[in-house]
Design a protein that fits this description.
9 strands; mainly beta
Length: about 190
């Protein structure tokens, strides 16, 4: 009887493994998706009851890798609309109305695009969400276009990285990749 019970327990433990083997798991993405909040780590602070200010913004983006390539001017062509990451177009969610550049932007979800140039980037805030790449980009759905300066960095960033940082009255969305940093100030 003990052997029968043990056999039943062991076979029941194998069922999920067998089922997982019969289905096809998607390949691991080379450009993993990431999310950044302001304030930083907001969900963790929330569950720890350590929130000192409300969530103001988050960005969801995929993180392409440099992999020895020249990024700006080759992989990402100057003067063309870029999804600001890889795979799905990057999304910005504002939890409160904000001022970005000279434009007042209502709270909500938006897609972020960029048009990189050698001396600046034009950041585009667009109403069309849940889209892949910039293939269906429609300028008629733009909410704002903001020219931002870029800064050459001494240290190279292998992975495209975005994060928020408080600076004076603004919350900056910092973007790093290769030897470049771009900053989008957002005022709440």
């Amino acid at each position: 009887m003990k052997k029968l019970i043990l056999a039943l327990i062991l076979s029941s433990l194998m069922i999920p493994f067998v089922n997982a083997q019969s289905g096809r798991m998607p390949a691991i993405d080379k450009s993993p998706m990431d999310m950044s909040y302001y304030p930083s780590n907001f969900p963790i602070l929330k569950i720890q009851d350590k929130v000192t200010e409300p969530a103001l913004a988050r960005v969801i983006y995929s993180r392409p890798q440099k992999n020895g390539r020249t990024v700006f001017g080759e992989l990402i062509e100057f003067g063309t609309v870029w999804r600001l990451g890889a795979n799905e177009a990057t999304e910005l969610e504002l939890f409160k109305d904000a001022k970005i550049g000279t434009t007042k932007v209502k709270k909500g979800r938006y897609t972020l695009y960029a048009i990189p140039q050698q001396e600046k980037w034009t950041l585009i805030i667009n109403r069309d969400t849940d889209t892949w790449g910039a293939f269906k980009y429609d300028s008629k759905k733009d909410v704002a276009r903001i020219d931002i300066k870029i800064e050459k960095q001494a240290e190279s960033a292998e992975s495209f990285t975005m994060f928020f940082e408080k600076q004076g009255a603004a919350v900056n969305l910092n973007m790093y990749w290769d030897n470049y940093k771009a900053t989008l100030p957002i005022i709440f």
